[in-house]
Amino acid sequence: MKIYTGRGDEGQTDLRDMSRVSKASPRIEAYGTVDELNALVGRIRPCGHGDVDEYLREVQNVLHVVQADFANPDPDEGDPAVRDEHVSTVEEWIDSFDEELEPLESFILPTGSKPGADLHHARTVCRRAERRAVALESAEDVNATAVTFLNRLSDALFVFARVVNQREGVPEESPTY
After folding, report:
1. 116-158, pLDDT tens digit by residue?
2. 45 CB contacts (<8 Å, ≥6 apart)?
3. pTM of structure
4. SS (H, E, C) the chain
């Protein structure tokens, strides 16, 4: 596979169905931001906590599916797509880790250990990816489950950050007003 083709030199790119769109289109913004999130998750992994690392690896795979899903304006039955099971899995992770954590009583600052702070950063990029996906969804047909997945994933990344910080003995800090 050749890395460069020159096909994008004039600000256009190919979607999965080989249709051409502007690189500034909502579809490209959505899956490009998911790509950024995926790269950020890759920088965090390994974080030193085996269960979190395992979940982050699975997250990266599903994010790749989200990208394929968003890059496909006219999906067929066998095409990659985010499914309800992906959302359910993330919810199970959140519930499992929630049992390990003290209940939240206030907002917390996105800080902590290196992997904890990095997971908070990933959460904010995930929220941006979700906003881009919602903008896409308002303009074109997309798999709504993929948008839901991003929403749930941002919650999971928040919980992962809290768990990692707790395991590393870093206390949570609340903002002062």
Report:
1. 999 999 999 999 999 999 999 999 999 999 999 999 999 999 9
2. 53, 56, 57, 60
3. 0.94
4. CCCCCCCCCCCEEECCCCCEEECCCHHHHHHHHHHHHHHHHHHHCCCCCHHHHHHHHHHHHHHHHHHHHHCCCCCCCCCCCCCHHHHHHHHHHHHHHHCCCCCCCCCCCCCCCHHHHHHHHHHHHHHHHHHHHHHHHHHCCCCHHHHHHHHHHHHHHHHHHHHHHHHCCCCCCCCCC
Cis peptide bond prior to 46, omega within 30° of 0: yes
Tokens of 13: 């790119």
Tally of residues, the chain: 177
Tokens of 116: 């904890």
